[in-house]
Amino acid sequence: MKTIQHWIDGRIAEGASGRYGVVTNPATGEQTGQVALANTAEVDRAVASAAEAFPSWSNSSLAQRTQVLFNYRELLNAHRDELASLITAEHGKVHSDALGEVARGLEIVELACGIPQLLKGETSTQVSNRVDVESIRQPLGVVAGITPFNFPAMVPLWMFPLAIACGNTFVLKPSEKDPSAALRLVELASEAGVPDGVVNLVHGDKEAVDRLLEHPDIAAVSFVGSTPIAEHVHRTASANGKRVQALGGAKNHMLVLPDANLDQAADAAVSAAYGSAGERCMAVSVVVAVDPIGDELVDKIAERARALRVGPGTDPASEMGPLITREHRDKVASYVPKAREQGAEVVVDGTELKVEGYENGFFIGVSLLDKVTPEMDAYQDEIFGPVLSVVRVPSYEEGLKLINSSRWGNGTAIFTRDGGAARRFKLEVQAGMVGVNVPIPVPVGYHSFGGWKDSLFGDHHIYGTDGIHFYTRGKVTTTRWPDPSDGGIDLGFPSNS
Ligand code: NAD
């Protein structure tokens, strides 16, 4: 059984707290490792290392940073398969999906490789006589990143490559449930030439997180995880004077209009609802079917859902792997009988699925609930598993009203062939990311990612232009090179002429 340690000051740092978390292989249910859980003193060591590295790293040339990031890109590319295997072993998602996660993370490293272009300032000459104004953006200092279990490589890559490209140093606190991929990412960054102390990693739970949120030498916190913890992180870190972006949970709706191609809509719903066993913040968890297509759409989704192959992520034939823990599996399963009791129609019930040879794994089959109404628990909660609800509505307007009354606003999608309706939806829907005939509208690296309402606390989305702004602060310099004739005392407010 392996022990997964911290990474401080450019090397492995053995856990000193005496506390460890359990790491399991969700496909077999067996414990495969233990992860060191940092105490306050260990977090402080990581922050001290980052703080010490900041003056020289923030002063490094753009050419130097770019070189390191290009090296990093090459190394990640060469280690895609290894990283995907680490993800599958601890998260459970199928290997092809894990490879997809690494690829999306790589996009942000590629964005960071363009940092000289992204950090360009602005200059206005002669704003007044012999006066020029220049705006630049400078790094903040030490930034902390706290990440969820469901994208153990991609979400850390959303954060630290861009943060360090901007000249910050970093302390990462990945999920303690599947920590090995993040540790490998940080080791590879060091191999790529990131100097010691620029990226540190501490594993841990609430104790480590809360120390990061209050540490006086942390300037900013990027968080991705569930809504209650995002709220806690935002509140606590803000109260401690830090800049915060805290991305939370979701309940993403897919509105299907009667004119949509129903086969394509059903394909999209199944892929987006059950991919990664529904453990994606951009998973579609509610299909909103506009009358009269409900019956036909449900039939098409059910037919596809029943054909999905569930099995270990290491088997290339598996399309969906297990859930992250036994407790989570049982919680997800409980929504199906509850929905039945509350009046929903259970069209596909995957709760009894057993995978031969993997009886102790945290597997669950896919479930499809029809005629779900907004009061039901299955509709109210973020289930975060392969349970798809269908809500029927009489019109586009009713569908929009339903979506806009959700407490979350991460992603949403419309399926239609009507350009005018799609345009209306794009403008009227209250969500941060909208898909038109695209079920999982995760933006590319050069557009920012983030939700509205309870899906994001803070002012900045993650990566893209918002990421650059989040990891830097503005400075404006006003310069005059006076003529001999300039001068004289004037107590009036400076005016430009
Ligand atoms: P989580 O909130 O349980 O954990 C996220 C991080 O917070 C982990 O590093 C964890 O160690 C830490 N944490 C957990 N409990 C804490 C506490 N009480 N105090 C301080 N820190 C704590 O989330 P998760 O279960 O790992 O991930 C799934 C959730 O993340 C889902 O709700 C999903 O929607 C959300 N998510 C959102 C996005 C997004 O972009 N909006 C992306 C991925 C995941």
Automatic annotation (TrEMBL):
Keyword Lipoprotein: no
Listed transmembrane segments: none
InterPro entries: Ald_DH/histidinol_DH, Ald_DH_C, Ald_DH_CS_CYS, Ald_DH_N, Aldehyde_DH_dom, MeMal-semiAld_DH
Residues in the signal sequence: none
Keywords, in A-Z order: NAD, Oxidoreductase
Key word Signal present: no
EC number: 1.2.1.27
Cited CDD domains: ALDH_F6_MMSDH
Domain of life: Bacteria
BP GO terms, sorted: L-valine catabolic process; thymine catabolic process
Enzyme class: oxidoreductase
Residue ranges of every copy of the Aldehyde dehydrogenase domain listed in the record: 21-475
Gene Ontology terms, MF aspect: methylmalonate-semialdehyde dehydrogenase (acylating, NAD) activity
Protein name listed in UniProt: methylmalonate-semialdehyde dehydrogenase (CoA acylating)
Organism: Saccharopolyspora rectivirgula
Taxonomic classification: Bacteria, Bacillati, Actinomycetota, Actinomycetes, Pseudonocardiales
